[in-house]
UniProtKB/TrEMBL annotation:
The lineage of its organism: Bacteria, Pseudomonadati, Pseudomonadota, Gammaproteobacteria, Nevskiales. Residues 204-305 form the HTH araC/xylS-type domain. The keyword Iron-sulfur does not apply. This is Helix-turn-helix domain-containing protein. Keywords: DNA-binding, Transcription, Transcription regulation. It holds the Pfam family AraC_binding_2.
Amino acid sequence: MQTFAVASVAPAGRLERWNEQLSALFSNLTAEPEEPTDFDGRLAWGRVESVMCATAWARSCRMHHGAESIADGSLLIKFQRSGRAHVSYRGQQSLLDPGDLVIFDTERPHELQLLGDAEMLAVTLPRAVLGERMRDLDRVAGQRLPGSDPAVQLCARYAESLWHLCGSRSGGEVSIGAASVLSGLLEFCVPDPQAHGAGRIGWEALQAYLQERLFDAELSIARISAELGVSARWLQKLFAQKGTTPARFILEARLTEAGRRLADSTYREQSITVIAYDLGFGDLTYFGRAFQARYGMTASEFRRRQSLN
């Protein structure tokens, strides 16, 4: 990890050195302090694979990335750690509070006005890793993504973990697919167009639908999406708000029912194979592994012990 502090430079050259460091890190970003003679700031930065992470603390100033700046083909993600900031991007205006997130495309000009002392965690992602996700991310670039959103909180926690990894000795040597993971988390932060219009459903409606189809072997996120008339991303966000995923939710529900039936004497004449197939498990080997991971024993041992109770 590398660091830079304005206080380490002679007063006459502080702003020039600050802008040199800022420009190198954030695609030709330049700062204009409200009080140049009283300006102070600190930077720290590091890298995990292709992801650059940096923290920036500064006193009130205007930071801008002009149209004449040279883009580096990156997406810039900023998490507001403390203080407040005003964002201008493509004619949009946003006010960031602590915990909020904003995304910038470095190919477009933008401006960030720090309203007093403020600190940010900034992460850059190569556009090349985003693929089809770039279309959705570009739609919300410059918009405030609120820190109250569980998806934003999850993304921020992952970004903070990358930042701490930058400070470790192995930060530049690990192989964790950081860019791919972070871009996937960012996708969950993007508001779904259906969230405020036709096609929106709530958790209760989704549960009612699943109750009728939970043990259907053909149940999938694509089928749920098609039958309910909502996007797959909207469904994934509903599950994420409950701390789970569609696949995990379905698996846990099926395993719970498997345990209930194996302990119920009315199902004693049914074989474990029949029960597994009836609950939507098309692969008995997979069912066996999942059951043992959940209950700590095989299905046959579980049934035997329950019969002794």
